[in-house]
Design brief:
about 450 residues; alpha/beta; eight-stranded mixed β-sheet; 10 helices
């Protein structure tokens, strides 16, 4: 059975890679991965913020089906089937590394956003209770350099109650009441990969297939990095040096991972996916929020293209041809059915609706168009993408806009009046999806 690795950055924009034309960023390992596999030119996060998108990866289902509406909202329910549970059922050893953000990790230690606070005890949902044999995880964000230490406020999103140089009050957890205490200094992506590599080596030594989910914190605020990673960008502003530096540091760890797969002789037996959980934070060129949408409208928290279109790569030597470019829209809910297919499982046995579809025949060129539209809902925003066309509502469905993304990726030309028939059909599809989603939210899938 093939090994499976899912990599995810945090708040990395559509334009935040060198292979996608960034004027400054250096991402040689992501560039190599893209050249050696399939680049999804229209890959989407299932939501405009972190936790819901992570839920879509973990279950193949829209997070509103089980109550994850926003960051720090809800948790993975026991009744949901996770990637870890599905893979472990078929004999895989499973590991989760980096950001979790799908529930709290402790009931008795106050930390992060919700952990250790009695009113959030019902949201206790750690990875070790959801199918993962090995864990090295934080509940939510940490600084991208010296992750356990409060950074300068200039790095962004630092709570006023915290003091620079003192604990950041978020831990890396490895199990119930078990916090990591060593090797927590320097680049956070390296700290994470230092745990991933032994996990993979152990799986290979034990001759077991593995599922490794690696969710970097980079480049989520607080953003800061070391001098070695700032140096290539020393001709730019301090904020740009830190932002581009943390992505280059993360890219280095992607390269380290790919090199390890080759040295172990398992690169052709391993499928690696890469994406981001949503578009870039904040306003471009303001402080450390230097992320790029490459001209797309909107940013994080928006269902416009810039808030949800993200990097997407699939590398599987011998299965996916180098230099493949996928123009069909795909999204993070597709990972679960793709992994199920790789594992030889039929999702029908789970008797519940899934929002994704198998990526492999798309990446291999066997599928020329998408038959299951991508449905979105985030707060008062609604959207549906059906191949080249997209509908978008900013007012909870009172009105909809229509765009042809094949010619108008910037969502500048509203075709709602000109092509009202298509608009009505797509709105009807979205409303049918909404009925299914609400039925799930009432617990009727279990």
């Amino acid at each position: 059975m093939p090994n499976i690795i899912l990599l995810m950055a945090d708040d990395q924009g559509w334009g935040d890679t060198a292979y996608n034309g960034h004027p400054h960023l250096r991402t040689p390992n992501l560039d190599s991965m893209a050249a050696n596999g399939a680049v999804f030119e229209r890959f989407y996060a299932a939501s405009a913020v972190c936790s819901p998108t992570r839920g879509s990866v973990m279950t193949g289902r829209h997070p509103l089906r089980y109550g994850i509406c926003h960051a720090n909202c809800g948790h993975i329910k026991a009744e949901e089937i996770t990637l870890g549970e599905m893979a472990r059922k078929t004999g895989y050893v499973t590991g989760h590394f980096g950001k979790w953000h799908l529930g709290t990790l402790t009931k008795d230690t106050v930390e992060a956003n919700r952990g250790g606070r009695p009113k959030f005890d019902a949201d206790y949902a750690p990875p070790w209770d959801h199918g993962f044999d090995v864990s090295f995880v934080t509940e939510s964000k940490v600084p991208t350099w010296n992750p356990m230490i409060t950074p300068p406020r200039s790095s962004g999103d630092v709570n006023k109650s915290l003091k620079e140089g003192e604990p950041f009050n978020t831990a890396y957890w490895t199990g119930p009441r078990q916090m990591a205490t060593e090797n927590l200094e320097g680049d956070d992506s390296r700290v994470i990969m230092d745990r991933v590599i032994p996990f993979i080596e152990n799986a290979v030594n034990e001759k077991k297939p593995f599922l490794s989910i690696i969710w970097f914190h980079t480049p989520h605020l607080p953003v800061l990095t070391g001098e070695v990673y700032r140096k290539p960008y020393n001709h730019l502003s301090e904020d740009q040096q830190h932002y581009y530096g943390v992505i280059t540091a993360m890219d280095q760890q992607v390269g380290r991972l790919r090199k390890k797969l080759k040295s172990l002789g398992i690169s052709e037996k391993t499928v690696v996916f890469y994406t981001s959980d949503n578009g870039p934070e904040g306003k471009s060129a303001k402080g450390r929020t230097q992320g790029s949408t490459r001209g797309l409208k909107g940013r994080k928290r928006s269902l416009n293209e810039g808030g949800i279109r993200v990097p997407g790569i699939m590398e599987w030597p011998g299965k996916v041809k180098p230099g493949t470019r996928v123009k069909i829209p795909c999204f993070t809910s597709d990972y679960f059915p793709t992994v199920a297919h790789i594992l030889g499982l039929d999702l029908k046995e789970y008797k519940r609706p899934f929002d994704g579809t198998d990526l492999l025949p798309i990446a291999q060129g066997e599928v020329k168009q998408r038959f299951k539209p991508l449905a979105f809902e985030f707060q008062d925003q609604l959207a549906l993408i059906d191949n080249n066309y997209k509908i978008y509502s900013r007012d909870g469905g009172e009105s909809f806009e229509l765009y042809n993304l094949a010619f108008d990726s910037g969502e500048m030309i509203n075709l709602a009046t000109k092509d009202s028939g298509r608009l009505d059909k797509m709105v009807s599809i979205w409303r049918k999806w909404k009925i299914s989603q609400e039925n799930s939210a009432q617990g009727n899938d279990y």
